[in-house]
Amino acid sequence: QVQLVESGGGSVQAGESLRLSCVASESIFSVNAAGWYRQTPGKQRELVAGISEDGATNYADSVKGRFAISRDTAKNTIYLQMNSLKPEDTAVYYCNAHRDFEGGRILIAGWGQGTQVTVSS
Questions:
Q1: 42 vs 39, 45, 47, CA distance in Å?
Q2: DSSP one-letter code for 16
Q3: pLDDT tens digits for range 60-94
Q4: Alpha-carbon dihedral angle through residues 19, 24, 25, 29, given to the nearest 10 degrees
Q5: How far apart are CA 37 and CA 94, in angstroms?
Q6: For residues 54 and 34, what is the distance between their CA atoms, to the nearest angstrom?
C-alpha cells in the first residue's frame, strides 16, 4: 500500500509562513491529481488545495491568494506553501492523491499521520 508522510508543520505567529511537504512511497503524483486537506477537532476533513494531472491548481476560498500547491514528480512529493497564516488555519494537514470519476472521487492512498500547523495571534 502507498505510504504518505507529511512534514513541515509547526507553531508560528499570524502572518508568518510555512512550507509543508508530502512524500509518497510510490510515484502516485505523476499520474493522479493530488491535494492538501486539513482537519480540526470535531470537523470534517476539508480540501484546501488541489493540483490536477496536468498541473492546474485550485484552492478553497479561505486560502486563495495565500497558499500555493506544487509538486515534484521526480521526488514523489507535493508541497504546500502557506503564507500570511491566520489563526483559523490551525489544523492537522494531510495530503493524498485521487482520481475523479462520474459521481465520485477515489483516494489513491491511505491517510498519513498528518502534520500539525498551529497559528497564534
A1: 8, 10, 16
A2: -
A3: 999 999 999 999 999 999 999 999 999 999 999 99
A4: -140
A5: 5
A6: 11
